[in-house]
Amino acid sequence: MRLEMNQVAGKTCKYMLILYTILCVIYTAHYFYVSYTGAHHDIYPRARDPNELTAQLQQEPIHHPAPEQAFEEHTVAWSNAQGTVHPISEEFIMSKVFANAMGPNNMIPFFYRAKTQFDQEDITMATLVTRNRFPVLARLAANYKGPISAAVHVNDDDTKEDVLKELRELYAENPAMGEYVDLHLIVDNYDRQFNMWRNIAKLFARTDYIMMLDVDFHICTDLRHSIRSNAQVMDMLRSGRTALVVPAFEFIAQADGEDWHTFPTSKDDMLQLVKDQKLDMFHRGWQKGHGSTNYTHWYESDDVYKVTKYDFSYEPYIIYKKEGSPWCDERFIGYGANKAACLYEIFLSGIEYWVLPDDFLIHQTHRYPEDTRRKERQYNRKLYSNFREEVCLRYARKFYASGEWETSRAENLKSECQRIRGFRSTMMTSTSD
């Protein structure tokens, strides 16, 4: 009798275990179906081999979503090497990623994705675009014929549908847009969040190196070839410790800068225009903005050279490594100091600025809203003054904590931050045991 009872109990436990297993399988299948059907991002485990992931992405078809279908909610799945998956709404993640920006924002990465599969060591033009600059973006795509990551801002009002229609027409009319431009859409009512837009363009760039470029500048030379064919310069970029400066110019007579077809395409032709006093450094009336490039030296140079007289108002156009470089501070809203603050932090982080000897940009003339610029500059000037102190102290603490204070990485910070009143005493207090 006792033996029979044990056999019955054993069978019961066996059947219950089988039933439990079946229920677990059904529940798991239902969970994944509910969580990952509809519009979502593919799940790529964070522990996956990057080479394997890149190969898979290159084999996938490229989709150009219809704008009216692109505003669906998306899910991002985080996973580990054991396959544990945690889904989070993309909107929630982006609110953290851009926590210092004004919000909420409706941000759609890869609203249009370029057909071309880019070489990992190519240089992406990371730029920001508003509605009145769509034709300029199309010209950049046709001229550069390389990867472009464009953050496009659209006001969330009754003009939105018209703007989206213009974007569709832009891609339909210009094959270079579809070939080379990854377009990331920001839909909100917050104008001139320039640093946030720069961060979006950088975040979703698909190559190792980016150029922080204002879309109004025309690339006059084949800088991709001159950089990628130079082993020394490529090694400097790969190190993550170098940002390459591309000198910027503008025509003295603004009317001369309206037709990019007339721009010089070689350094010799450009130098002749400088001698003829038709061309000069960009914003020559504001020497602090580009003077550190040392244009006098550039005119005679045939090799890269280091920027040695840095100014905190310096605003060059740079090419640098995407991974490991600082992001632009998103508290700077509107005109004035936004780009300078971004470049200042890059410099303090230990990245040196080196000037390319043969490549250059020329500004394409357009009208500036001077009244708006003047008011916003007043506010951002105050913000930048505090920001400089803040970022000096933050990176100084970082270098002390990581043991890099006595290395070359801290040299930029030491030379620049010692000019700030009270920095030395503050450092001694904050780092003392």
UniProtKB/TrEMBL annotation:
<keyword id="KW-0325">Glycoprotein</keyword>
<keyword id="KW-0808">Transferase</keyword>
<feature type="transmembrane region" description="Helical">
    <location>
        <begin position="12"/>
        <end position="33"/>
    </location>
</feature>
<dbReference type="GO" id="GO:0035269">
    <property type="term" value="P:protein O-linked glycosylation via mannose"/>
</dbReference>
<keyword id="KW-0472">Membrane</keyword>
<dbReference type="InterPro" id="IPR051292">
    <property type="entry name" value="Xyl/GlcA_transferase"/>
</dbReference>
<keyword id="KW-0735">Signal-anchor</keyword>
<keyword id="KW-0812">Transmembrane</keyword>
<protein>
    <submittedName>
        <fullName>Glycosyl-transferase for dystroglycan-domain-containing protein</fullName>
    </submittedName>
</protein>
<dbReference type="GO" id="GO:0016020">
    <property type="term" value="C:membrane"/>
</dbReference>
<dbReference type="GO" id="GO:0015020">
    <property type="term" value="F:glucuronosyltransferase activity"/>
</dbReference>
<keyword id="KW-1133">Transmembrane helix</keyword>
<dbReference type="Pfam" id="PF13896">
    <property type="entry name" value="Glyco_transf_49"/>
</dbReference>
<dbReference type="GO" id="GO:0042285">
    <property type="term" value="F:xylosyltransferase activity"/>
</dbReference>
